[in-house]
Write a structure and sequence with these properties.
By secondary structure, this protein is α/β, with parallel strands linked by helices. It is about 50% helix and about 10% strand. The chain has 2 domains: about 5-245, Rossmann fold (3-Layer(aba) Sandwich), CATH 3.40.50; about 255-350, Tyrosyl-Transfer RNA Synthetase. The protein has a 7-stranded mixed β-sheet, sandwiched between helices. α7 (about 110-130) packs across α17, α8 crosses α10 (about 180-190) and α10 packs across α11 (about 215-225). It is globular, with a radius of gyration of 21 Å. The chain binds iron/sulfur cluster (SF4). Iron/sulfur cluster binds near residues 300, 329 and 333. It is found in: Cytoplasm.
Length: about 375
Amino acid sequence: MIDPWGSANLEYMDLIEKFGVRPFSEVLDDVPEPSWLMRRGIVFGHRDYDRILEAIRSGSDFAVVTGMMPSGRMHIGHKMIVDQLRWYDKLGAEIFIPIADMEAYSARGIDFETSRRIAIEEYIAGYIALGLDLTKDNIHVYLQSENLMVEDLAYVLAGKVNFNELRAIYGFTGSTSMAHMYAPIIQVADILHPQLEELGGPRPTVVPVGPDQDPHIRLTRDIAGRFREKYGFILPSSTYHRFMGGLTGGKMSSSRPKSAIFLSDTPEEAEEKIRNAKTGGRETLKEQRELGGVPEDCIIYETLLYHMSGSDPELEEIYESCRNGTLMCGECKNNTAEFIRKFFEELSRKRKKALSTAGRVLEG
Ligand code: SF4
C-alpha cells in the first residue's frame, strides 16, 4: 500500500499498454545517478531509452530536444522540464530548445513579435532563474521562425507526409489551415535536425515530453524511418513525465490563474496560493487521525514530490505520517508554504537579474 511515488501513475498506464511506451522503472536501475524526477516516478515511461543510456555509459555524444510554447505565463509545473535539462546538461548532452513561435501562430493566432517577447520575459528568464545557463556552448535556444536549417528540413520531410496521415493523427479537417497542418512537420524537423551532417551527423537523441505529446513522437519516428537512407537518422528516443495537478483540482494551466503558481508571482502570492490549495485531508481532525489523509489526492504533497529535490526519506516520512494519521494538514501546509515562500524569495531575485540578460540568448 505504501508507494510514495507510484500510485498517481495509474492513469498513464494506458499509454504504456496501447502505444508501446515502456515503463521507465524497467531502465531506472541502469541510469547512473537518476534524477529525483526519475526516482519518484514522475518520469514514468520511455521509448528506446537504452540508446541514451548507452551513450551516457560510453561517454559518447547525444542530444536532447525539448521545446517551449510561448503562449502564456510560465508556471511551476513547467519547472520539471528545466530540472530534466539541468540533469542532462551535467551529463554533457547537447541541448536544443526550440521556441515554438510558428506553432503559437498557427494554433493560437499569436504573432511572432508577441511570441518572442513572451519567450524572453517568461520562459528564457524563467529557465535561467531556475539554474539552466542558456549561454553555454552546448545549449541552443532558437525561434522556429528564425531557424532556416529547421525550416528547410521540414520542407524536405513534408515531401513524404500526406494529409490523410495527419488527419488520422491530429484530426485535421478540410477547414484546418495550411499553417496549422504544417506545424507538426516543423516540430519533427526540430527533433531531427540535431542529426544533420552540419551539426555532427546521426546521434542518439532524446525528447522529454508529457504523454499528450506522444503523437508527435510517433510521427517523428515514422518520418525518421522514411528518411533513414538519405540522412542516416537514428530513431529518436523519448521519455514521458506526468503533469503536476492544479492547486484547485484539475490541471495546472496558465489559462486558469488560480490553478497555478507562476514564476513571476511574488513570494507572498506563492505562499498564499499554497495555503489555499486543495489537500487530501479529511473533513475533521478526528477522521484524519483515524483514517489518515490521502497524499495521492493532495496538491501539497504533489508540490513536495515535484519540487523538494533533496531528500527522498524526508518525503517518504511525510507520506507515511499523512497516511497513518499522525500528520495534520494544517502543519503540513504551513511547512510547505514556508518552503515555497523561501524558494520564491530566491527565485524572484534570480528572475529579476535574468530578465536583464534573457534577450541576449536569442541574439547568439
Ligand atoms: Fe496532504 Fe499533508 Fe494533509 Fe496529507 S497531511 S493530506 S500530505 S496536506
